[in-house]
Amino acid sequence: MVTGRALHFVFKVADRTLTAKFYREVLGMKVLRHEEFSEGCEAACNGPYANRWSKTMVGYGPEDNHFVVELTYNYGITHYEQGNDFRGITIQSSEALKRAAAANWPVKESDGLKFVEAPGGYKFYIIDKPQPTDKDPVKQVSLACSNLTRSVEYWNGLLNLKIYEKKDKSAVLGFAEDQAKLELVDIGEPVNHAKAYGRIAFSCPFDEQPIIDEKVRKANGKILTPLISLDTPGKATVRVIILADPDDHEICFVDDESFRQLSQVDPNSDADLDKYIKADKSRA
């Protein structure tokens, strides 16, 4: 069995200034930590780019008990083509709708659901109810799939996520009731990840990572990056394994013990992000 914990979803962002405004002033998230790297990640955390990049974690609370967003910025990259792979993140926050109105940020509607779009076109569906303070407002991440049965067999049968809801064309899965869920929606066509493709991350105990590795290998699944240790300057080293599901959605499993050390909230991160945005000449 895999005893995972939902951590975050990774977005590639081209406009760090406008992106920071959206997450802070519209969604009302906080900057939890900011990290700068001089060269590309060995596990392709910043995509297939061997350049300077940064990682900014934003969310409604500490990563120990909140599902957050990882904003990956590659210096000098000014645009990412979007595919049909990412459908949206759902949060409960009437306050976000009010902030969007105050900031003149468009609030759109689809099938009775209100949503706002982050720079780059990433959708955030908003449940129009007061934002909870005793639990995480982030409810689920929705990804496209081309064959729901095959995807559920992978996520449930191989990775051990529980099925919380199943319909003809969609399924909701997760590791625990109090965690953000993963929704898979069958779009009836191939999934195109284009250049803006993201990555969903979970943690699991250090000793369970080799079990995941063995299970995926036996099932002839895709392992994009075998078990590898990644360093963050001045912070904890973590071990990760990067997988790809049947539709090539990237999945990271990081060891929980080290990640809890790495992901401690940095009180200087908000100011650090602004400092690096101001000093960035790569978009000139």
Automatic annotation (TrEMBL):
- Keyword Hydrolase assigned: no
VOC domain sequence ranges: 5-129, 137-256
Keyword entries, A-Z: Repeat
Matches recorded under InterPro entries: GLOD4, GLOD4_C, GLOD4_dom, Glyas_Bleomycin-R_OHBP_Dase, VOC_core
Which family is annotated? Belongs to the glyoxalase I family.
User: What's the protein called, per UniProt?
Assistant: Glyoxalase domain-containing protein 4
Q: Which organism is it from?
A: Papilio machaon
Q: Give the taxonomic lineage as stored in the record.
A: Eukaryota, Metazoa, Ecdysozoa, Arthropoda, Hexapoda
